[in-house]
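Quiz preparation item.
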């Protein structure tokens, strides 16, 4: 099958997502072309035909957005490639034009956030973007069931696919030298960073040796005073590159996701792939991925005391910690692997060809 993938977003998660799908399709003997930005720096199989069609760093208002010559050239390339399937992987304003100009019958778009996150600078853009995508798309992939009924209608076809970020590393759960907890990913208010910091302060009063990690890019300035109250915060306030992921995840006991709102989260299958269980909030599509008391703990959002209790409970019960971590790893192999995700995606492709 001749597959064209379009991924013009340069966020870390989207780049990993696009490279994983590209490389796995190649392994399955498909012919793959990837349209991406010149800032795309993930490892891609040498047999993938990579076309750098824009200089844009972010899908926002910058000069590259209005480079319609490159957009026109990309449309001509699509015609010359004559793909069996066009799959748009990540959000970008040009996607609306692609959906308008391409054959809707064999064009698919992955809609990662059917409902935009609150409080982000691009929330309004995402609302307009989603509206355009929903009206123009005949074939949509979602990574959570929660919004399927709100999007599905007689004009489109929806496929829900389990999200995976990477395939599992070799698993041998070893407790880190010190009890430690990780908040990972983009630092945004909707992810409950304030709740995490408040919970860490409570935990510190009971277990003074626990290390609290915050790893990811984002603005922490408003939390500086809170972070100074205890010495146990270890902060890596930058976009964590691929070659640091394993060392970050394997130095912690488990991962915490105190999200206030969510559609799905790539952090959970990522944690599972390193054999790390999670404590996550019962919001959005997260309960579809976290089996309470089996692969992790589910708690209510915006409750730092409940989060602190769960952290202490898990840190003080090594047998449960190892059991949940082992279950999480097994889940990453059986359900949340890139191979399994791409298998489900290609089944959708075959329905349309």
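Solution:
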């Amino acid at each position: 099958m001749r597959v064209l993938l379009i991924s013009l977003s340069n966020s870390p998660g989207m780049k990993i997502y696009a490279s994983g799908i590209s490389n796995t399709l190649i392994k399955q003997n498909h012919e793959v072309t990837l349209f991406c930005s010149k800032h795309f720096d993930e490892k891609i199989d040498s047999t993938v035909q990579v076309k750098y069609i824009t200089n844009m760093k972010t899908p926002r208002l910058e000069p590259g957005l209005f480079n319609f010559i490159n957009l026109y050239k990309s449309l001509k390339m699509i015609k010359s490639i004559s793909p069996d399937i066009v799959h748009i992987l990540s959000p970008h304003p040009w996607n609306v034009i692609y959906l308008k100009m391409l054959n809707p019958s064999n064009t698919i778009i992955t809609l990662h956030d059917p409902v935009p996150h609150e409080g982000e600078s691009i929330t309004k853009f995402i609302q307009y973007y989603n509206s355009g995508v929903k009206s123009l798309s005949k074939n949509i992939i979602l990574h959570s069931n929660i919004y399927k009924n709100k999007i599905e209608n007689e004009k489109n076809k929806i496929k829900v696919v389990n999200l995976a970020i990477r395939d599992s590393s070799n698993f041998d759960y070893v407790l880190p030298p010190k009890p430690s907890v990780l908040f990972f990913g983009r630092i945004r208010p909707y992810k409950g960073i304030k709740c995490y910091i408040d919970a860490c302060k409570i935990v510190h009063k009971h277990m003074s040796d626990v290390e609290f990690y915050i790893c990811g890019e984002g603005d922490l300035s408003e939390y500086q005073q809170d972070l100074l109250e205890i010495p146990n915060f270890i902060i890596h306030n930058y976009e964590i590159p691929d070659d640091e992921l394993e060392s970050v995840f394997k130095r912690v006991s488990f991962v915490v996701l105190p999200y206030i709102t969510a559609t799905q989260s790539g952090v959970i299958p990522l944690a599972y792939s390193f054999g790390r269980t999670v404590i996550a909030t019962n919001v959005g599509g997260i309960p579809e991925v976290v089996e309470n008391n089996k692969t992790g703990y589910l708690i209510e959002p915006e409750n730092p005391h409940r989060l602190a209790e769960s952290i202490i409970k898990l840190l003080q019960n090594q047998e449960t910690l190892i059991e949940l971590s082992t279950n999480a790893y097994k889940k990453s192999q059986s359900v949340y692997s890139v191979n399994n995700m791409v298998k489900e995606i290609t089944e959708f492709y075959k329905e349309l060809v």
